[in-house]
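Input.
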Amino acid sequence: MEDKTPIDAIHRLMPEIEESREKIRKIREQLKDVMEQNDEYRKLEEEIKELSTKRAEAKKLLMADKDFQTINADLDDEKMKQKDLQEILSHYLVSYYNETQKTEITDAAGETKQLLLSAKLGKAVAD
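Output.
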């Protein structure tokens, strides 16, 4: 059956994607069951839990250190700045694509880069 319009294709694909998502969930559960039956895996999981507890304790000590707090705050600020800049760049790239329909752009250094366009469905909205 050939899809006549993009919306036909979307409506055909959405149930297939949901079915695949459900199969992946079931397979992951099976995989988890098999792993939990393995003695060596269970032993390592216990060791990892113990190390995670020790790591959390060490992190608490670090969080009390003034130098760590300062550097960590600087890192958080820079991450936020980068996220904001990425959002702004994304907006401009979408605008550039809408205006030109080109999937390549040359940057200020003269290097040509490919535009990666992406879309996905979000959660259902109330009508």
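The longest helix spans residues 66-100.
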